[in-house]
Write a structure and sequence with these properties.
The chain has four helices and three strands. The chain is α+β, with helices and mostly antiparallel strands. The chain has a single domain, classed as K homology (KH) domain (GMP Synthetase, Chain A, domain 3, 2-Layer Sandwich), CATH 3.30.300. Strands 1-2-3 form a three-stranded mixed sheet. It is elongated and about 65 Å long.
């Protein structure tokens, strides 16, 4: 999936640093939520997500060509903010450590 987004979608509105971080499939394999991490400004992130959502039909068609299932899953995209959250926690811990050193 990541390779498909990086190489096949030739839309410049998708940020260069967009990566697939995970996929959740429903039990019946008919629905897939694709989690993506996008590095860039908030405007770039929003534009990349909108572009990915518009390309869902193309992505689903390409996946359908490469898998052997009766149905190709419906795809939805969600932004994975775990990297941002991890960076936030890291900053908080560092600031607490600095406060301890001052005291």
């Amino acid at each position: 999936m990541g390779r498909l987004i990086a190489r096949e979608i030739k839309d410049p509105r998708i940020a260069a640093l967009t990566s697939v971080t995970g996929v959740d499939l429903s039990r019946d394999l008919r629905h897939a939520t694709v989690y993506v991490s996008i590095y860039g400004s908030e405007a770039e992130k929003n534009e990349s997500m909108q572009t990915l959502k518009r390309a869902t039909g193309f992505i689903r068609r390409e996946i359908g060509k490469n898998i052997r299932l009766r149905y190709t899953p419906e795809i939805s995209f969600a932004e994975d903010r775990s990297m941002e959250y991890g960076a936030h926690i890291d900053r908080v811990l560092k600031s607490l450590d600095e406060d301890d050193r001052r005291e």
